[in-house]
Write a structure and sequence with these properties.
It comes from Cryptotermes secundus. The protein is mainly alpha-helical. The protein has two domains: 115 residues, no CATH class; 177 residues, Cytochrome p450. It contains eleven helices and eight strands.
């Protein structure tokens, strides 16, 4: 799924087809993966937390090389798209986000380019998802439109509950801009604070019976009764994930296409979680597909 995500992001944002799943050994794809591993390794070694020590270390130099590859490829894509836009004035059915940013940078000089648990319950959930898809598409196998995706309310609840239990980013940090009082303690400005989304999402105060998979937690009324800061799947506040809507649309579109064609069944390999910047599985995510 990581390679699939890379493909989606590159095509949506840059209009570039990199075929990451077929070309997983390409320099660009390997650089993205390797730089993530460097970030994880640094987070596990307190001696490498200071920027100066990290940049002087062999790990820091490795990350610099990988990031240079990513940045060079990205810069090349930006410049290539910018040149194409100078000559392409016609109507386009799909406009990559990069194109929008380039146009914005031209019009706004201040905006730069740099800049599973109980079986019965599980079956009912699956049937609800499938019923929703049939209500939207009937027997048609056409691709989902933007309006279709907006109608997938229950599927979105299922996705949000899945991400509650298994957030892509289980830990993230913020740097305090001012002193912050926590009970009898004061965390000083400039300190780095870590938020443990994986644990917060399992707090029974906000999510009763937290290990139970229950999409109804995300019914509008239930969401309104909770603090918006107890669900941090996409972070929160002014520095939350800028790709929330894009990510949800991409997941819903991909799952919709699969659900309508296949029964998605669990594989034989148990899930073995591991954390390396993002939450993953040591054994992969193995599933079985049966044609409907």
């Amino acid at each position: 799924m990581n390679l699939h995500s890379i493909e989606n992001v590159c095509e949506t944002f840059m209009g570039a087809k990199i075929n990451a799943q077929q070309n997983s050994g390409s320099e660009f794809v390997r650089a993205i993966s390797a730089s993530s591993h460097c970030m994880y390794a640094r987070s596990q070694n307190p001696l490498l937390h200071p920027d100066l020590l990290f940049h002087m270390s062999s790990l820091g130099r490795q990350q610099a090389r990988y990031l240079a590859t990513v940045h060079a490829t990205s810069k090349e894509a930006v410049e290539e798209r910018a040149q194409q836009l100078l000559h392409d004035k016609g109507w386009r059915a799909r406009i990559p986000i990069l194109d929008m940013l380039i146009e914005l940078s031209r019009n706004d000089k201040d905006y730069g380019r740099l800049d599973v648990r109980e079986e019965i319950a599980a079956m009912l959930i699956v049937e609800k998802v499938l019923m929703e898809q049939k209500e939207i598409f009937g027997d048609s196998d056409r691709p989902a439109t933007y309006r279709d995706i907006q109608e997938m309310k229950y599927l979105e609840m299922v996705i949000r509950e899945t991400i509650r239990l298994y957030p892509s980013l289980p830990v993230f940090g913020r740097k305090l801009q001012r002193d912050f009082d926590v009970g009898d303690f004061v965390i000083p400005a400039g300190a780095n604070v870590m938020f443990l989304a994986y644990q917060i999402h399992r707090n029974p105060k906000y999510f009763p019976d937290p290990e139970k998979f229950n999409p109804d937690r995300f019914l509008p009324d239930n969401v309104m009764r909770r603090s918006p800061y107890c669900y941090l799947a996409f972070s929160a506040g002014p520095r939350n994930c800028v790709g929330i809507k894009y990510g949800m649309q991409a997941i819903k579109g991909t799952l919709s296409a699969m659900i309508r064609k296949f029964k998605i069944l669990p594989g034989s390999t148990p899930l073995s979680l591991q954390y390396k910047i993002m939450l993953g599985s040591r054994t992969g995510f193995k599933i079985r597909l049966e044609s409907r």
